From TrEMBL, chain A:
It comes from the Bacteria. The chain crosses the membrane at residues 37-57. Keywords: Membrane, Transmembrane, Transmembrane helix. This is DUF3311 domain-containing protein.
Automatic annotation (TrEMBL), chain B:
This is histidine kinase. Gene3D superfamilies: 1.10.287.130, Histidine kinase-like ATPase, C-terminal domain (3.30.565.10), Sodium/glucose cotransporter (1.20.1730.10). SUPFAM superfamilies: ATPase domain of HSP90 chaperone/DNA topoisomerase II/histidine kinase, Homodimeric domain of signal transducing histidine kinase. Keywords: Coiled coil, Kinase, Membrane, Phosphoprotein, Transferase, Transmembrane, Transmembrane helix, Two-component regulatory system. The lineage of its organism: Bacteria, Pseudomonadati, Pseudomonadota, Gammaproteobacteria, Chromatiales. It is an enzyme of class 2 (transferase).
């Protein structure tokens, strides 16, 4: 099941984003848009993870692929 | 602010909750359920955000900066995994009517009463501090509202009847009793409670956002200005980094993992996410919407904390009450009142759900099993036990709230909100190993789970609960400094000399280490009983086999006995109805004296599980069954037989589908044959007809010449020309017919070679130049510069192009006629040859028949027939032989375009598979 694999991958990604050592890269003095960089980092990763979760769990629609026009006729007898 | 206003508002708010819960229950009874909705479901999960979130996070942030976020990042991480873990738990719980965490653990490990009781005990002891936390928060916020900014009054009152926390606890007990114990069957949803909790989630979110907006945008000039000012204070600037985090990244990770487990295993979360779940699909929404809720409610925690520190300076106001103190200090009393209600709703929501969840656990997995153990009770209880159990739950609700209140009086004053909550988190984390390992590993055994839970619980009590009594002054501080009786390696905060970790990480490590280690270790060596193996297989394979009617009982009981048993717990009338509807559903007649079928016994057992827990249900059913429960092998055989039957019917279905398909193909082939036969007849009559016309005219002119020898030379020559022309037409016709039949029968010799379509078109255009000159039709040939390589038969392709060109010349007007011939590539695989004229065009109806043999465009449109009607039919055959396609596009009056598409690979040597193509 592809969905299971996607979920596991996303969980691993999220676990990495929210932990040492990636976290330590942003635990420093600095400002983004006038806000502390760590604060901005945590909330944007948070938003990213929940958006991806929604995307992965979205119910799939069954879209029919339209056949290529004009070449779908029966083949000849040679 | 006046006391009566606060009291009236608080009570009025609870009254509103009553009204909401009541009308939601009423709506649910009439079938218009509000809870079958992913948004209400998500909001009810937000019961996770309690007074801890509302008041405690700010306090925590003033000490350790962003570390308060771990409590919400954990659930976000877990929400990603919900689809894999929680969905499985929900499916199992619904299938086997499991109503609580304790029941889940008991049921998984062989419906063990002891395990269910132990888990219940852990839950009650573990959650009591958490309930106390909420009562403390309500009481504290009340005091702040009442007496701010005068801190002197802010002490706990001496007499409990003066204490608002006590009255709040009482009020909540009434609510929990009214909406939590309507039915005895705990699998029936508590819709009123869920809707009320969802409503509370909206209120607390709005209230906290209001506080955040006020502080950030009214007290300060937006978040940037606030943070800028905060950065000027050294002490606050440190909080923006992780340097102020006690225990560093290890603590960060521990708290994240702890809250990941809490979001699933806290009894109140289990109640709303698992037991109250209506539809598994709601998880799809909740898995992203719930983290979004958490994100939004946490946005302003740091700004409020910093604002409070800047505004009040150090030590004057308890940081846990900044949310209220800031608007009060600025004189915004009504805003503060709204925020107070938000905090009140956060606290009450948690207390209500937690108490109900615990009450169901205590009655189903602790008290009822204990009562059933007492021999006398079982015998004497011929009466209706359902009333008794409902009342039992009501008493338990009151006791649990009293317990929480007691802990609050004893301990709570010395602790910050968050620290109390974390003690509970570690306690419920003990449920994670037996459940998570149990639903993925069949080998996890009852003895292992038992050993793990006991060890984990004891270590939790020793390393976290006991020290909390020290801090409250009940035990000498020496315990934490020198260890019990001076034995240093037994120090609760530094067990076996492990002193590097902060108390929470220390407790989490030892308790989970012992818990998981014993669960796995003992399971690897202990033998599982039959019922354990059965339950293990059922839980782990829940998505493989989900047939409900699994038989576990080999012995016999009469239908009457079974119904009586059920009636004692769920009421005789309901039991009768249940059996009647079962009989109807399965199309069988149930008579009291009959032996109950194993499926019915299993069904009754599951119904009982919902009311009294799985372990008790099993005991009760076994008490009326004569004979033994099935062995593991027996059950597995039945399960496998069922899956084999399912597999077999699946294969049968597939076979019949294949058969259907074959029949369909045969029918189509037959139809095609009939059609061909018909076409052949038509062909013969068409050919005869076409041959007769020129023959007739030749014969007529021949006879005239024969019988009139005196005709003058001029006329004789004219007649002979007619004869010659008609003979040519005849020859041409016969040639075409021969051609056609040769191609059709496949006897035509094809000389396939790699050639340039441009070259072919060039030759064909030259050959027809004369016709175009004669009719003064303008022929324009547009060829691309690069060669158009295809595989094909040179002569046949020339014939094709000539046919198309002469056709076009025939149907365009002399003088202003124009024919365009274009060759161009379509994509990598296909080339296109278009012949476009500006003749009268071809109607839709004609377009469909134009490639049929002997079809001639009707005379109304194009004057009298101008051809044999075989040219396009031959074109079609040539295109077919080249694996290509020919079609016509036309609007009547605007000319016609014949389009031939060639595969570049071309001819019979190309790689295209004819099956794939069609």
């Amino acid at each position: 099941m592809q969905r299971t694999e996607r979920i596991v991958a996303l969980a691993l990604l999220a676990a990495l984003l929210f932990n040492y050592p990636l976290l330590s890269l942003f635990a420093r003095d600095g400002w983004v848009f006038g806000l502390p960089v760590l604060y901005v980092y945590l909330f944007s990763c948070w938003l990213l993870v929940l958006l991806l979760t929604g995307l992965v769990l979205r119910r799939r629609r069954h879209a029919a692929v339209p056949p290529r026009q004009g070449n779908g006729k029966d083949s000849g007898h040679v | 602010m006046s006391e009566w206003l606060l009291v009236i508002t608080s009570f009025g708010y609870v009254g509103l909750l009553f009204a909401i819960a009541y009308s939601a229950d009423k709506l649910g009874d009439t079938g218009r359920s509000l809870v079958n909705n992913p948004y209400v479901y998500t909001l009810s999960i937000a019961v996770y955000c309690t007074a801890w979130t509302f008041y405690g996070s700010v306090g925590r942030a003033t000490e350790t900066g962003v570390s308060f976020l771990t409590i919400y990042l954990g659930p976000t991480l877990m929400a990603v995994l919900w689809w894999l873990i929680l969905r499985r738990i929900i499916r199992i719980s619904k299938l086997y009517r499991i109503t609580s965490i304790a029941d889940f653990i008991a049921s998984r490990y062989g419906k063990s009463m002891a395990l269910g009781g132990l888990a219940t005990f852990i839950a009650v002891v573990g959650i009591t501090p958490y309930i106390a936390l909420q009562l403390k928060a309500v009481s504290d916020s009340f005091v702040v509202m009442l007496s701010f900014p005068d801190p002197e009054v802010a002490t706990t009152p001496l007499r409990f009847w003066d204490d608002k926390a006590f009255w709040v606890a009482g009020l909540l007990a009434i609510f929990a009793i009214l909406f939590g114990t309507r039915h005895i069957d705990a699998t029936e949803r508590l819709e009123g409670m869920v809707v009320a909790v969802a409503f509370e989630s909206v209120i607390k979110l709005l209230a906290f956002l209001a506080a955040g907006f006020f502080v950030t945008f009214m007290l300060f000039d937006g978040p940037q200005a606030l943070f800028e000012q905060a950065a000027e204070v050294d002490q606050i600037r440190d909080l923006m980094l992780l340097s102020s985090l006690p225990g560093g990244y290890v603590n960060w990770m521990t708290l994240t993992v702890l809250s990941m487990l809490a979001i699933v295993f806290l009894p109140r979360q289990w109640q709303v996410t698992v037991v109250e779940n209506v539809n598994e699909d709601h998880l799809r929404t909740a898995a992203w919407l719930f983290p979004l809720y958490l994100l939004v409610i946490n946005l302003f925690v740091l700004p409020i904390a910093f604002a409070g520190m800047i505004y009040f300076g150090e030590g004057t106001v308890n940081p846990d009450s900044f949310v209220l103190a800031l608007p009060l200090a600025e004189g915004y009393d009504w805003l503060a009142l709204f925020i107070y209600i938000g905090g009140f709703s956060a606290a009450t929501g948690m207390v209500i759900v937690a108490t109900i969840a615990l009450a169901i656990m205590v009655s189903n997995d602790l008290v009822v099993p204990a009562l059933l153990r007492m021999r006398g009770f079982q015998l004497s209880a011929n009466a209706d036990l359902s009333r008794f159990i409902v009342n039992l739950r009501r008493v338990i609700i009151c006791l649990i709230l009293l317990l929480g209140y007691g802990y609050y009086l004893l301990i709570a004053d010395t602790y910050a909100l968050v620290s109390i909550g974390l003690i509970s988190f570690v306690a419920v984390a003990q449920f994670a190993p037996p459940i998570l390992i149990g639903i993925f590993w069949k080998g996890a055994s009852r003895k292992g789970a038992m050993a793990g839970l006991i060890a984990g619980f004891i270590l939790w009590g020793y390393t976290l609960l006991l020290p909390s009594f020290v801090d409250a002054g009940l035990i000498s501080r020496a315990l934490l400094e020198h260890g019990p009786l001076g034995v240093g390696w037994l120090n609760p905060y530094g067990l076996f000399g492990l002193t590097d970790l902060d108390p929470i990480t220390h407790a989490v490590f030892w308790s989970l280490f012992a818990n998981i280690g014993l669960l796995v270790g003992v399971s690897l060596f202990a033998r599982q009983s039959d019922i354990e193996r059965i339950q293990g297989a059922l839980f782990v394979d829940v998505f493989l086999r989900s047939e409900r009617d699994t038989r576990f009982w080999e012995g016999t009981a009469t239908v009457g006995d079974l119904q009586d048993l059920l009636g004692r717990f769920i009421g005789q009338e309901r039991a009768r109805q249940t059996f009647a509807s079962y009989a109807e559903e399965h199309g069988i007649a149930l008579s009291e004296r009959d032996h109950a079928r194993p499926e019915l016994v299993g069904y009754a057992e599951r119904l009982l599980s919902g009311s009294i827990g799985s372990a008790s249900a099993r005991v009760m059913v076994s008490s009326i069954i004569k004979g033994e429960a099935l062995s593991f092998e027996g059950v597995m055989e039945i399960l496998d037989a069922t899956s084999r039957a399912i597999e077999y019917s699946r294969r049968l279905e597939q076979k019949s589908r294949e058969l259907e398909k074959a029949t369909d193909e045969l029918r189509r082939a037959n139809e095609r044959l009939k059609e061909l036969d018909h076409l052949k007849d038509e062909f013969v009559s068409m050919v005869s007809h076409e041959l007769r016309t020129p023959l007739t005219s030749i014969r007529a002119f021949g006879e005239i010449l024969l019988s009139n020898p005196e005709l003058d030379a001029e006329q004789r020559k004219e007649f002979l020309q007619v004869v010659v022309k008609e003979s040519e037409r005849l020859t041409r016709l016969i040639n075409q017919v021969l051609d056609l039949s040769k191609i059709e029968s496949g006897a035509a010799e094809w000389h396939l070679e790699t050639l340039d379509l441009n070259q072919v078109v060039h030759e064909a255009a030259d050959a027809t130049r004369q016709i175009f000159n004669d009719t003064r039709v303008d022929l324009q040939v547009h060829l691309p510069d690069e060669p158009m390589i295809i595989k094909g038969d040179h002569d046949r392709l020339i014939q094709l192009v000539i046919n198309l060109l002469s056709n076009a010349a025939k149907f365009t007007d002399a003088d202003d006629g124009r024919v365009d011939l274009v060759v161009k590539p379509v994509d990598n695989e296909w080339l296109e040859l278009r012949v476009q004229d500006n003749g009268p065009g071809i109607s839709d109806a004609e377009q469909r028949k134009i490639f049929d043999k002997f079809h001639q465009v009707s005379s109304q449109q194009a004057g009298k027939p101008k051809g044999s009607g075989l040219g396009l039919a031959i074109c079609k055959l040539i295109m077919d032989a080249h694996w290509g396609d020919i079609r016509v596009e036309s609007q009547p009056g605007e000319g016609a375009t014949f389009i031939c598409e060639f595969p570049t690979a071309g001819g019979e040597h190309c790689n295209l598979d004819p099956e794939e193509k069609s």
